[in-house]
């Protein structure tokens, strides 16, 4: 079954609008999450970005924190043999991924810490999973702050005198 152009145009415009409104760091997180998701052994088909929501981007002295929820849609293409144009299967799996990333403040931002959780959208809404996700994202956001400084030799010196 082929869809007429009148149905594809709004979908294409929606995808373009989502991509146009995102910062480079947000696009990088989306790309990383798709790569992570396709690297899982239980994923056999290619998935495309459906929507991005719940975007939080905060900057502080230690870097930039990005959190987002990425909706995915299964396509007809196998992940081992990706093609240029893969048709989205409307009645198939539509997982959601929560991603939290912390980037440093360099010209080419490096990832200081990250957390992903992908699963069915109803799975991510469960109270226990939501609480764990919030705790993990808070830990990611704290990365790079003063408490995470690496130990360097000589940083702490304790001397003890000889017994008298």
From TrEMBL:
<keyword id="KW-0221">Differentiation</keyword>
<dbReference type="GO" id="GO:0006935">
    <property type="term" value="P:chemotaxis"/>
</dbReference>
<dbReference type="InterPro" id="IPR046350">
    <property type="entry name" value="Cystatin_sf"/>
</dbReference>
<dbReference type="GO" id="GO:0045087">
    <property type="term" value="P:innate immune response"/>
</dbReference>
<feature type="signal peptide">
    <location>
        <begin position="1"/>
        <end position="21"/>
    </location>
</feature>
<dbReference type="GO" id="GO:0050994">
    <property type="term" value="P:regulation of lipid catabolic process"/>
</dbReference>
<dbReference type="GO" id="GO:0006954">
    <property type="term" value="P:inflammatory response"/>
</dbReference>
<dbReference type="GO" id="GO:0005615">
    <property type="term" value="C:extracellular space"/>
</dbReference>
<keyword id="KW-0395">Inflammatory response</keyword>
<dbReference type="GO" id="GO:0031012">
    <property type="term" value="C:extracellular matrix"/>
</dbReference>
<dbReference type="InterPro" id="IPR029562">
    <property type="entry name" value="Chemerin"/>
</dbReference>
<dbReference type="GO" id="GO:0030154">
    <property type="term" value="P:cell differentiation"/>
</dbReference>
<keyword id="KW-0732">Signal</keyword>
<dbReference type="GO" id="GO:0050921">
    <property type="term" value="P:positive regulation of chemotaxis"/>
</dbReference>
<protein>
    <recommendedName>
        <fullName>Retinoic acid receptor responder protein 2</fullName>
    </recommendedName>
</protein>
<keyword id="KW-0964">Secreted</keyword>
<keyword id="KW-0145">Chemotaxis</keyword>
<keyword id="KW-1015">Disulfide bond</keyword>
<dbReference type="GO" id="GO:0005102">
    <property type="term" value="F:signaling receptor binding"/>
</dbReference>
């Amino acid at each position: 079954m082929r869809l007429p152009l009148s149905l594809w145009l709004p979908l294409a415009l929606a995808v373009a609008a989502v991509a146009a409104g995102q910062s480079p760091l947000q696009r990088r997180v989306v790309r990383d999450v798709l790569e992570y998701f396709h690297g899982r052994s239980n994923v056999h088909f290619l998935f495309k970005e459906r929507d991005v929501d719940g975007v939080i981007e905060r900057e502080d002295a230690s870097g930039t924190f990005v959190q987002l929820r990425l909706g995915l849609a299964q396509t007809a293409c196998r992940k081992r043999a990706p093609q240029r144009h893969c048709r989205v299967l409307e009645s198939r799996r539509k997982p959601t991924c929560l991603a939290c990333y912390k980037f440093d403040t360099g010209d080419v931002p490096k990832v200081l810490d990250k957390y992903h959780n992908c699963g069915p959208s109803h799975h991510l809404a469960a109270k226990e999973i939501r609480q764990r996700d919030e705790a993990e994202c808070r830990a990611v956001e704290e990365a790079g702050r003063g408490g995470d400084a690496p130990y360097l030799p000589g940083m702490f010196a304790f001397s003890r005198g000889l017994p008298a």
